[in-house]
Amino acid sequence: MSVFLVHGFRWARNEIRIHVVLQEVDDAAPNNLMCGDSEEAMNENFRELYPGPMANLPPLRFIEPLNPNNEKFKYPSEPFAYVADVVVQSEDVIDVTEVMNTGIRAAQWDAMADLRDIIAKGEKIGWFVVHNGDRQLAQQERLKKDENGANGVENEANTIAGAEAVEAKYSKGLGEQVARLQVHAKYDGSSDMNEKADKKGGKFKKLFRGESR
Asked: Which residues of 161-184 are buried (b: 16+ CB within 10 A; e: fewer)?
């Protein structure tokens, strides 16, 4: 099992799915932001959308918690991930005091707070210990650490009720957006509009059924 000490904040899974769909981040897997090119794609997207905060941050990590013995949540459907600017990974022991004593630059902390207020307003920024029991991920992280060294992330917990409320709220919002695209297509005769509406609506439904990209 990999253990991550991260500095950052929690990002609710349904908010991640909504962001990936609406921003059309095709290379990101919203149910597992640690796989493939997801982190690189999300960093590129954030740099385009939020250049101010991102200018004062290192490349962000998106850390997924996973307890393989937890029957309530089965990977990759944990209700949140951690967005982190500092990450230290180990399969053994982490000297928490030593890591935390290195501190966070004021400009970097302020940038994380600004980013948090944009994508996850109300979430706590702090230090978190995140466990991930994915053996394949542990091997990938070892290789990544050997090549690049360590980096960073944080998080808090999310409730099922809260996740369902977010899903209901944004499902309605996206449904209205798809409906508007369909109306435009009807009146301007654009097949492209119809295709875009069908694609966005179908992709959103698949994500909320827990399917991968």
From this structure: eebeebbeebeeebeeebeebeee
44/62 Cα distance (integer angstroms): 13
How does strand 2-12 pair with strand 80-90?
A: antiparallel
Q: How far apart are CA 117 and CA 95, in angstroms?
A: 30
Cis peptide preceding 76, ω within 30 of 0: yes
Q: For residue 145, with 0-12 CB atoms within 10 Å meaning exposed, 13-18 middle and 19 or more buried, which class applies?
A: middle
The residues, any chain, with a CB within 8 Å of residue 92's CB and separated by 6 or more, are: none
Residue 30 has pLDDT above 70, yes or no: yes
Q: Enter the pTM of the model.
A: 0.66
Could you give the 3-state DSSP secondary structure of residue 5? Answer: strand
Helices assigned H by DSSP within the chain: 13-22, 38-49, 51-54, 96-101, 106-119, 135-148, 160-188, 191-208
